[in-house]
Amino acid sequence: MITWNMLNEEMFNKFVRPGEIIESRILNIYGLYPLLFKGYAKGIVVGYFDNLDDFVKAITPVLKVSGLQIYMTLQVINPDLIARAYNRLKPATNTTGDKDVIAYRWLFVDLDPVRPSGISSSDEELAAAMEMREKVAEFCTTEYGFAPPIKAMSGNGAHLLFPLADLPAQDKDVQSFIKQTLVGLDKKFSNDKVVIDTTVGNPSRITKLYGSKACKGDPVPGGPNRTRRPHRVSYIDSLGE
User: How far apart are CA 95 and CA 44, in angstroms?
Assistant: First the structure.
């Protein structure tokens, strides 16, 4: 299996075409990090990027700091937002909102293992999500006629990103299509082990920056009477078409 992440040129270009930008967002970050950015973080740090070199330069040091959670925007956003943090990271005063999104490029399907909140998934729980991922992907391509999706592991669950034809994000019918598709998949596939999240369809939804680590709760080693719950590095393992 070839593992891809957002620091890879081919993968970056899947999300950011010439003239476009992406927001990277670090959550639950407080204090001074002089090697990462200037200023004092009060919970959120953002950066807007239009090229891979600056993106990698800014994000690589963040990946080396234990416990930081890094996310990214998925859809096509207003390129003027780059003036908020021009190819760099900074403590946030604004983040991308729904009204800042121009187009839906992806139908994002998030398959989340059922477990107590605030903890990482077990190996068994993750395997159940990845198994359901394949069933959902096959159903959507054969029954709905969607193009083959990008397939990813979020660190705790599974993701599918079905390519769309840059549908207008502010169109109510498009938003309804996204919402109803997720609701339909939830009704068909969700069970007592894995659920499809129906709340991820808003235009400005962020997701795990693929290639970064998911760190919910503390990592727990396995034992005779203890379930292993590790912190895992997220990845994209299939580029679709």
Answer: 9
Q: CA 237, CA 241: separation in Å to the nearest integer?
A: 13
The predicted-structure confidence for 26-48, as pLDDT tens digits, reads as follows 999 999 999 999 999 999 999 99
pLDDT for 1 beyond 70 = no
Mark out the alpha helices in the chain (DSSP H runs): 9-15, 52-63, 123-142, 172-189
- Alpha carbons 27 and 13: distance in angstroms, whole number: 24
- In the prediction, which pLDDT does 112 show? 98
Q: Which amino acid is at 216?
A: K
Give yes or no for a contact between 231 and 215, defined as CB atoms under 8 angstroms apart.
yes
Intra-chain end-to-end CA distance of the chain, in Å: 16
Give SS3 for 18: coil
Those residues whose C-beta lies under 8 Å from the C-beta of residue 105, and which sit 6 or more positions away, are 15, 74, 75, 76, 163, 164, 166
Task: Sort 165 into a burial class: Cβ within 10 Å, 0-12 / 13-18 / 19+.
Answer: exposed
Parallel, antiparallel or unpaired: strands 76-77 and 206-208: unpaired
- Per-residue pLDDT, averaged over 146-157, amounts to 97
Tokens 């970064």 sit on residue: 212
pLDDT grade, residue 224 (50/70/90)? confident
The length of the chain, given as a count of residues: 241
Name the pLDDT band for 3 (thresholds 50, 70, 90): confident
Element (H, E) at 158: strand 158-168
The helix/strand/coil state of 189 is helix
Nearest to 96 by CA among 109, 107, 108, 83: 83
